[in-house]
């Protein structure tokens, strides 16, 4: 379902394509996964998906923490659904735009800002947020909970826009030269957010070093994009080779 939506929407933007083309790239990349470049790209994508899915869940849970249980569950559900939709939308837009000369450099600068924001979240101490019972680890977010359902829903929607763009941009930057890994990484980011975000948040909350490894990967991808954008190398991106 997700692959079909990605293919149809990207085809509408970039030209005719098919799921068969996508599948061929996936098979090609994963059959060569033992190659250092492909393995490194897949490892980077996996780590980025894990830490940003957990971060997304923590932020949503923290913003909803001050609401009654029934409203809190609704806000968290809204946050998850919005994140799923936005990840698919941004996957199509970012992979298309990053084929334009110069935008890889701009994307790298944006990822540096994402890294700084993530670093601050990891370093900040909790202040006045007891967290929500649905999401583990959100009491350590450092975010103040929203005071009403409307305020919480709006704050979650705004946060989802930023965090979904961060996730897709990082995955696209890590796997630009491996379109099959790129597609799997985008699908995986949606699946993790929808099915396992709370579990990931719990694990990262217990083992904080995982988040720091993820941060290091994002910083590496950011500097790589800046370098390639500055020197004019790597200006094509995975999905643009599919259609």
Automatic annotation (TrEMBL):
Species whose genome carries this gene: Sphingomonas dokdonensis
Entry annotated with the keyword Transmembrane: yes
Entry's Gene Ontology cellular component terms: membrane
Transmembrane portions of the chain: 36-63, 181-200, 209-227
Protein's UniProt name: Integral membrane protein TerC family protein
Family: Belongs to the TerC family.
Location within or outside the cell: Membrane
Main location per the UniProt record: membrane
